[in-house]
Amino acid sequence: MGSLGAILLAAGASTRMGSVKQLLPWKKSTLLEHSVQQLKHSEIDNIVVVLGANAKHICEKVNFDEVDVAVNPDWEKGMATSIATGMRFLLKKIPDIESVLVALADQPLLDDKYYKKLIDKSLKSTNKIVASSYSNELGVPAIFDRDYFDNLLNLKGSKGARALLRGGSVKVTSVNAGKLALDLDTREAYNSVYEQHGRL
């Protein structure tokens, strides 16, 4: 597959959470640091974490060793702008990068084993996109071949990559993420999942 980079999206203000979601406790660290570690353990060489809201505060609290950080000044315009920020960063750093994995920082049950499964599937698939399936929909984490880099750079709005994945015009290989792909958008959701999985 050639060179693979990863964009970890962590730019949101987490208004429904009532606190900075990226810094909520998870096992020995925080939600964000846990997500970074899982990507690192999946042996992706170039990882960029895209921050937006609370970027300075997060940088003071999170260990970003061996990964890059890009701050999206337009994060309030939606997830699409954060994907584009990550894409521009990776393309500048590695102009010949061949594929990109897009992931979210608030899906802590998706571990390095799952990311490796996605990577393995993308190596074997003839399709140019490999995406996660859950709740009968396609979503991220997903791996996009270089053929779709322009699409990622030109996404609009808050739906992020989902607009591309669910548009019906692209051929996508799916990997079933099932209940692992929980988004922690509310304090209730976080508390429930933390009690079951996030404690030491």
Can you give keywords for this protein?
7 helices; two-stranded antiparallel sheet; single chain; Spore Coat Polysaccharide Biosynthesis Protein SpsA, Chain A; seven-stranded mixed beta sheet; 200 residues; alpha/beta
Description:
It contains seven helices and nine strands. It is α/β, with parallel strands linked by helices and 200 residues long. The chain has one domain: Spore Coat Polysaccharide Biosynthesis Protein SpsA, Chain A (Alpha-Beta Complex), CATH 3.90.550. The strands form two sheets. A seven-stranded mixed beta sheet has the order 5-4-1-6-8-7-9, with helices on both faces.
Summarize the structure.
This protein is α/β, with parallel strands linked by helices. It has helices at residues 31-41, 55-61, 79-93, 112-124, 149-153, 162-165, 187-198, and strands at residues 4-10, 25-26, 29-30, 46-51, 68-71, 99-104, 129-134, 137-145, 172-176. 34% of the residues lie in helices and 24% in strands.
